[in-house]
Structure formats: structure tokens, C-alpha cells
Design goal:
single chain; alpha/beta; UDP-n-acetylglucosamine1-carboxyvinyl-transferase, Chain; five-stranded mixed sheet; four-stranded mixed sheet; 12 helices; globular; binds shikimate-3-phosphate
């Protein structure tokens, strides 16, 4: 696909689609609750639709209309029915990993599998703690590649678990297993990761203690249906934050953006880079306004990384347009995302003229460099595809041809239309 290039003066107000992490979890808790859950501003994108399809195969009735998704809960984990075929998660790491936790205590067998990318991502990070809790799981190899075969009929018990990686998906899978286990579970994280599962447990009437890096909960909990309002996804807003900062003479307002502090690392980075960004926040969401800025390099590391892990590709683009050096470290998790995002970002931005060096756990980027036309690929990764479209807007000479552009539908099906709508 030929990308839009060479833009100035992009102005507009955008409401980005619903948060992906919260949309997945609202289906999951809605399915497990007693009663009918209504979800507003649900993310109608491939990943979250995969979660809906998986629950339908498990016997949960879910209706979709333009304004809401309605989930008819089955009153607990044991209300889920044995699926007649494999459970296909498409490209969605959140679906497969959280479903492993949800199905760990089922009375029936089930198989979880997904697309080519999913079948190359490590599931053992979830399988290992779940087996310690009493689940029986078989995978294709030692890394735990899908298909994941879950054997039913086990009674789970609580666990005290020290997380070896900072991952909300792993933490959430353990939490789902813990909710159906005998006794107490305590999880200690390496770094604080997004706490949407913890928040949903509380919203649906369950109990969990969250203190610093430790979460504690007891088993055999039950949930009551809720009305859920999903805020806009800050990870999708991030592309338009970058657009507003980088495209000359631009001013972008983003409304109803989710501002959970475990997700707002990108706002801290923009501030450190000297970006012109203002925020009006209410409790959970707010409006962000950005205007074209002269940026400077910064260092991104440590506890900041999980707070912006999905935004690192677009932050790398910001760094190519900032004066001086930007160092991203402690981000080895990028290697096991939808694609190896360290290599993908470095390869593709280099093709466009950026000065960028991949390292074992991040990237070193020297700015500022003019970007030029090139033939690039998303590697089938939605966030790489969207980052490259924002990069293309800065290209003054030559064309940018993007392979595998359709990947953006994983989290933002209207992305290219929204870009077009900003151009008059
Ligand atoms: C997610 C957690 C993160 C993130 C992913 C969504 C979630 O993954 O990258 O896009 O919804 O829990 P990890 O847990 O692998 O870091």
C-alpha cells in the first residue's frame, strides 16, 4: 500500500477507539459474571473480536450492535462449556495468555491456537506458574509455542509467585487461575505492569489487594454483571500524539483517552523530550492536546518501560526527529511482541534514513535526521505499520510503500481513514 507522505498543517480532534486491554477483559469478566454485562466503546478490532469468538465457542451468548456489546454471563468459571473445536485467537497474545488462566481449572480439555506470529511467541511464561497451581498444559516445544493443549479436571491451588518477567499478561493469567483456586495467591512483580485485571476484579464485585509490586487475592470468588465504559486506548492515541508533535504546523486534540497511571509512560517521555503537550484529566480519562514541537533526546529505562512498552516503536520515531541521542534500554520484552520490535523498528526506520542502532535490550537513536521514501514492511505487526505511516507523513521526497498494511486492523481498523480525515 502507498502511504500518505509530505504533510504539514494537520489539525483536528480525534476520539481514538476503545482500550484493547480493557475491551478484552470486559468480555472475560462479563462472561464469568452473573447477569448481563453491557460494554460501551468496545474496541471493534480483530484482537478483541477473537476474544468474543473464543467465548462464543465456550457457550457464552454475546451480542454486538453499533453502540454496545452485550455479554450474557454464565455465573462462574464452571459455567463455561466444552468447545467443539480448537479456540483460535488470531494475532492476540492477550487472548491466548489470559484464556490459559481462565481455562486452567476447567473440567474439559481445550486447545488454544492462533496465527503464524502467535505460534512463535512464548507461552511457557504462563504455563510454568499455571502448572505449579495444578493445571496440566502441553505445548509444541520448551518455549511453549501454540497450539496449547489444556487438560481438564484439575483442582487448582493458590500460589506465591515471583514474576521472572514484567508482563501484565502473565500476571493476569495467574490472577484468573487464582480466582478459581483453593486458598490465597500472592504475586510479586519485577516492575509494576498495567493493572486492568485488578481493576476489573474490583469493578465486577471481587476482592484483590494491590500494594506496590505485590497483589494478593483469595480463590473461589464470584462476579456480578456491570455496565462498562471503555476509555480510548492511549496506545492508539500515541500515534496521533507523535503526528501532532512531528508534522509541521499541527495541532491535535485527543478526547476520552484512558489515563491509568500504569499506561501513561509516553506522556512522561514527551515531557522529558520537551514536547508541547497539555492534558485535562478526570479520574480515568482525559483530553490530550499536542502541537508541533522541537524535541530533544532522552533516556528511557527501568520502571518506565512497562508503562509504555507498546509505545516504544512510535517513541523511536519521535527520537529520530529529536536533537541528540535517545537511549532505550531494559526493553528486551520487545523481542517477543507481535514481531521482534527491536529489529523491526531499527530495520525499517534505517531504510527511511534514520540513524538507529539495535541493542540487546533496546535501541540507540541519534537525531535529528530527515526521512526519505523507501519500501518498508509492518512484518504483520499493527504497531509497526502505524508507526511507519506517521513516519511517512514526514517524508518530503520519494514514496513510501508499506507491505502488510492490513495488520493495523488488529487494533485500529480505521487508522488510515482517520489520517486522511486530517488532510483537507
Ligand atoms: C497487555 C500486556 C502487554 C502489552 C499487550 C497487552 C495486556 O503485554 O504489550 O499489548 O492487555 O495485558 P505483556 O504482558 O507481554 O507485556
Amino acid at each position: 500500500m502507498k502511504l500518505i507522505t509530505n504533510q504539514t498543517n494537520l489539525k483536528g480532534t480525534i476520539e481514538v477507539p476503545g482500550d484493547k486491554s480493557i475491551s478484552h477483559r470486559s468480555i472475560m469478566f462479563g462472561a464469568l459474571a452473573k447477569g448481563t454485562t453491557r460494554i460501551h466503546h468496545f474496541l471493534e478490532a480483530e484482537d478483541c473480536l477473537s476474544t468474543i469468538e473464543v467465548f462464543r465457542k465456550l457457550g457464552v451468548k454475546i451480542e454486538r450492535s453499533d453502540s454496545e456489546v452485550v455479554v450474557h454471563g454464565v455465573s462462574g468459571f464452571q459455567g463455561l462449556k466444552k468447545p467443539e473445536s480448537e479456540l483460535y485467537v488470531g494475532n492476540s497474545g492477550t487472548t491466548i495468555r489470559l484464556m490459559m488462566g481462565i481455562l486452567a481449572g476447567a473440567q474439559f480439555d481445550a486447545v488454544l491456537t492462533g496465527d503464524e506470529s502467535i505460534r512463535k511467541r512464548p507461552m511457557n511464561r504462563v504455563g510454568i506458574p499455571l502448572e505449579k497451581m495444578g493445571a496440566r498444559i502441553e505445548t509444541k516445544n520448551d518455549a511453549g509455542f501454540a497450539p496449547v493443549q489444556l487438560r481438564g479436571g484439575n483442582q487448582l491451588s493458590g500460589i506465591h509467585y515471583e514474576m521472572p518477567v514484567a508482563s501484565a499478561q502473565v500476571k493476569s493469567a495467574i490472577l484468573f487461575a487464582a480466582l478459581q483456586a483453593e486458598g490465597e495467591t500472592v504475586i510479586h512483580e519485577k516492575e509494576k505492569t498495567r493493572n486492568h485485571t485488578e481493576e476489573m476484579i474490583r469493578l465486577f464485585g471481587g476482592e484483590i489487594e494491590e500494594e506496590g509490586l505485590t497483589v494478593k487475592l483469595s480463590g473461589n470468588q464470584s462476579f456480578t454483571a456491570q455496565e462498562v465504559r471503555v476509555p480510548g486506548d492511549i496506545s492508539s492515541a500515541a500515534f496521533f500524539i507523535a503526528l501532532g508533535l512531528l508534522v509541521p504546523d499541527s495541532l491535535i486534540r485527543l478526547t476520552n483517552v484512558g489515563l491509568n497511571p500504569t499506561r501513561t509512560g509516553i506522556l512522561d517521555v514527551v515531557e522529558a523530550m520537551g514536547g508541547n503537550l497539555t492534558k485535562e484529566a478526570s479520574t480515568f480519562s482525559g483530553t490530550i492536546q499536542v502541537a508541533t514541537s522541537n524535541l530533544r533526546g532522552t533516556t528511557i529505562e527501568g520502571s518506565l518501560i512497562p508503562r509504555l512498552i507498546d509505545e516504544l516503536p512510535i517513541i523511536a520515531l519521535l527520537a529520530t526527529q529529536a536533537e541528540g541521542e535517545t537511549v532505550i534500554r531494559d526493553a528486551e520484552e520487545l523481542k517477543v511482541k507481535e514481531t521482534n520490535r527491536i529489529d523491526a523498528v531499527a530495520n525499517e526506520l534505517k531504510k527511511m534514513g534514520a540513524d538507529i542502532t539495535p541493542t540487546e535490550d533496546g535501541l540507540i537513536i541519534r537525531g535529528k535526521t530527515a526521512l526519505h521514501g523507501a519500501k518498508v514492511t509492518s512484518y504483520g505487526d499493527h504497531r509497526i505499520g502505524m508507526m511507519l505511516q506517521i513516519a511517512a507523513l514526514l517524508v518530503k521526497e520519494g514514496e513510501v510503500e508499506l507491505e502488510k498494511a492490513e495488520a493495523v486492523a488488529v487494533s485500529y481498523p480505521d487508522f488510515f481513514d482517520v489520517i486522511e480525515s486530517l488532510i483537507d
